[in-house]
Amino acid sequence: MSFEHSKKILIALDYDDQEVALNFVKQLSPDTCRLKVGKEMFTYFGPAFVKELIDLGFDVFLDLKFHDIPNTVAKAVTAAAKMGVWMVNVHASGGFEMMSKAKSALEQFGDKAPLLIAVTVLTSMDETELKRLGVDKSAQEQVIYLAKLAKEAGLDGVVCSAQEAKALKAELGENFKLVTPGIRPEGSDAGDQKRIMTPKQAIDAGSDYLVIGRPITQADDPVKVLSDVNRSIA
Ligand SMILES: O=C(O)c1cc(=O)[nH]c(=O)n1[C@@H]1O[C@H](COP(=O)(O)O)[C@@H](O)[C@H]1O
Prior knowledge:
The protein is an alpha/beta fold. It has a single domain, classed as Aldolase class I (TIM Barrel, Alpha-Beta Barrel), CATH 3.20.20.70. It is built from 11 helices and 8 strands. The chain has helices at residues 3-6, 18-25, 39-55, 70-83, 96-106, 127-132, 139-152, 165-172, 199-205, 214-217, 222-233; strands at residues 9-12, 34-37, 60-66, 87-91, 115-119, 157-159, 177-180, 209-212. The protein has an 8-stranded parallel beta barrel, surrounded by 7 helices. β3 (60-66), α4 and β4 form a beta-alpha-beta unit. α4 packs parallel to α5 and α7 packs parallel to α8 (165-172). 37% of the residues are buried. The model has no long low-confidence stretch (mean pLDDT 96). Orotidine-5'-monophosphate binds at residues 12, 14, 38, 63, 65, 89, 119, 122-123, 159, 181-182, 191, 193, 211-215. It is an enzyme of class 4 (lyase).
């Protein structure tokens, strides 16, 4: 299995117990995956937990989906960069000015700046939910619309569903990174995710990174599921 391929999996560490999370992480190698810390673990355990993962040698995606006034978000991504994370995200719906200010704030970190990624339409949303928010476009149209805005603002890529990956690569080019949650290996439970794909389908569609949480973390043998997923995309 190639090194590059195996680093495409970003495991969503959505645990409410730090010891359980660390026991799981200690069974993994930083050569086979990266780790994502989101709102639940960061709210419980904060920057100290993130630093512990970095000290264990893992690249960390800090998934706090910042959405606020431009000044506040620029300062928040600066704090993330100082923590040493590999990737951080904001909501594209926070607007062009918010995204471009956040990008500019990271310039001071040079090649140590984290990748800055914009969330487009959450993978838990479908068109019924978009209509409720007053959005009349299809999910794919809305994702492309927000992704173009993110690219214009200088961001490195977007979070989207793998279902939109092919159209986004065609529209925005190979270098614009696509981070896709809503990944469900064959036979696993969709849960609250609506726009889903299997790992292999997602890679074939053009996803650069696959975010996978519960199908791995809640499996009887998480390490085996991770290695099966890595094998399926190698
Ligand atoms: O930004 C994200 O990571 C994210 C965006 C999105 O549109 N959908 C989405 O599920 N996520 C995150 O990806 C992870 C998916 O976890 P599972 O559904 O358990 O695989 C969760 O931690 C979500 O917070």
